[in-house]
Fold:
Amino acid sequence: MNGIEADKGGGESTGEAAGVLSVDYFEPHVGKIFSFRGTRYAFPLNKIVSDDRAFPDWIKRRPFMLIFRGPKEAEVLPEGLYVCEIAGGPAVTMHVAPIFTPQPDCQEYQAAFN
Structure:
């Protein structure tokens, strides 16, 4: 995903972070609640899925996915671009989509970073 930005908290985006967010940026936030601005939805970041293969030096970041886990409900958070406010932390704009979740009591969502 390109054009992803981190917000330092006062609504100002850090141009430096745009497009280069990495696994390291999100690791301290695993287990924290992400609120999706403009919606009623808020889910914990359940896990980060990353590939351990070697990549060429010109690759700016290793691809990864954030997996959020919410309750199973009749309505899901629609796929789209959201400002995600991290509990006790910054806000990050990312594309989030519901994904197939085999567990009957929850619904997972992903944000992919390529």
